[in-house]
Design a protein that fits this description.
It contains four helices and 15 strands. The chain has 216 residues and is mainly beta. It has one domain (3-16, 27-215). The N and C termini lie far apart (47 Å).
């Protein structure tokens, strides 16, 4: 079994039983027609996912926004990735609903075999990030694209302790949602940081924040 397959095989097992749905109220609901979803990895998280290791088999890692630099598409700066909203409904009065985005992140690891003089590329993508606030706990999901494709894969739960939100003049802002890795997210982050034993990710680890700005 390949290195990537060994990490991806258990992903679907956890996808179906992560969260319990919560009903969405209808009054005051924002039907999102535009806006952004911003995923901000903490500096130590970003460094672990993009570092270069040394030795007989050094790895060079990178995270690339999809599509990179496209007009109106995702943009990235360091560990912060901003994606355009693709739709959704959110009730700010009770913080329920969901929001979907376009674009994603490409995870690349180039392994160098200095003895044989060969390079190998390990690559996967997470696209279509979505915030699902109508579950307990709230979750961040994405589509995984590798040798296989898995839709609506739970990546992280959303810790609400530091949340800030307001709605005025047809614009909704939700910020301060902390990303707490679920089993899928920890597996994928560890795949990216495969040879970096100093930065092993674990279930429940806080790795960044996500925020939503949307207009109806």
């Amino acid at each position: 079994m390949s290195r990537l397959a060994s990490y991806i095989a258990p992903l679907l097992a956890a996808a179906a039983a992560v969260a319990t749905p919560v009903a969405l109220a209808q009054s005051g609901v924002y039907t999102l027609r535009s806006g952004t979803v911003t995923l901000a990895l903490w500096p130590r998280t970003y460094r672990a996912l993009t570092s270069t290791t040394r030795g007989a088999y050094p790895d060079t890692r990178s995270l690339v926004s999809i599509p990179p630099g496209a007009s109106g598409g995702p943009a990235s700066s360091g560990g912060t990735f901003t994606f355009p909203v693709a739709g959704g409904q959110v009730d700010p009065s009770v913080l329920t609903g969901s929001a979907r985005s376009r674009g994603g992140i490409e995870f690349n690891t180039v392994s160098h075999n200095t003895t044989a003089g060969q390079d190998s590329l390990i690559q996967f993508k997470l696209t279509g990030f979505a915030l699902d606030l109508s579950t307990a706990p709230a979750v961040l999901t994405a589509t995984f694209i590798g040798k296989q494709t898995y839709h609506d894969l739970p990546i992280a739960s959303l810790a609400m302790s530091g949340i800030r939100h307001y709605a005025r003049s047809g614009t909704l802002t939700i910020s301060g949602l902390e990303l707490k890795l679920l089993a899928n997210g920890a597996q994928l982050f560890n795949q990216q940081a495969y040879n970096d034993q100093a930065h092993r990710f674990r279930v429940g680890q806080l790795v960044g924040t996500v925020s939503l700005t949307g207009s109806r």
